[in-house]
């Protein structure tokens, strides 16, 4: 499917976990995604094994620990952690995973992408949920157009 349809399907989920949300956000990509999803009315869930709270809301060490589970996951950690999260998503029957990538290498790990797809997960391997409506803003949309040209946002998702 094309990226626009895959993003719409992903963002139709209302309870989305975001891994890599930091206690000291700065401009950390996972925090930006987490905060925007919250602003747009999503039930965003912070995943960080080093704390139990971020911004006054509960944080969980892993996907298994989230009461009631989640519908989808944004991986915002270093690529070396992506496979562990992907395996956990598969075990928990989470079928939508987005590996965040902006200008840098982001969170994309090719082995995690392959593993997820082999196990029926729709994996978006690049770009950012904030580049697509209803979570988007003008700056992210412009960035999306540029990053598509250089291959940082996939055109097709499987």
Q: Under the CATH scheme, which architecture would be assigned?
A: 3-Layer(aba) Sandwich
CATH class: Alpha Beta
Beta fraction: 15-25%
Do you know the CATH topology?
Rossmann fold
Spans where pLDDT lies below 50 across 5 or more residues: none
Query: Which oligomerization state do the chains in this entry correspond to?
Result: single chain
Name the average pLDDT.
Answer: 92
CATH superfamily: NAD(P)-binding Rossmann-like Domain
Which structural class is indicated by helix and strand composition? Answer: alpha/beta
Radius of gyration: 14 Å
Largest sheet: 7 strands, mixed
Helix coverage percent: 25-40%
Distance between the termini: 6 Å
Dominant shape: globular
Give me the number of helical elements.
Answer: 5
Q: How many discrete domains?
A: 1
Organism: Tessaracoccus aquimaris
Pfam family, one: CoA_binding_2
Protein name: CoA-binding protein
Domain CoA-binding: 10-104
What's the SSE blueprint?
Layout: H1 3-11, E1 15-19, H2 29-39, E2 43-47, E3 53-54, E4 57-60, E5 72-75, H3 82-91, E6 96-99, H4 110-118, E7 122-125, H5 138-149
Helix pairs in contact: 3-4
């Amino acid at each position: 499917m094309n990226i626009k349809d895959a993003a719409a399907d992903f963002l139709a989920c209302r309870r989305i976990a975001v891994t890599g949300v930091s206690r000291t956000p700065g401009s950390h990509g996972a925090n930006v995604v987490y905060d925007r999803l919250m602003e747009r009315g999503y039930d965003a869930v912070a995943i960080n094994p080093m704390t139990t709270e971020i911004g006054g809301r509960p944080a969980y060490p892993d996907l298994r620990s989230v009461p009631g589970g989640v519908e989808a996951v944004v991986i915002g950690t270093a690529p070396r952690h992506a496979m562990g999260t992907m395996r956990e998503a598969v075990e928990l029957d989470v079928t939508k995973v987005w590996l965040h990538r902006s200008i840098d290498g982001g969170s994309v790990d090719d082995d995690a992408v392959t593993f997820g797809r082999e196990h029926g997960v729709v994996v978006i391997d690049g770009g950012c949920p904030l580049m697509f409506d209803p979570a988007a803003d003008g700056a992210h949309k412009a960035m999306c157009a540029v990053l598509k040209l250089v291959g940082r946002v996939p055109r097709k998702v499987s």
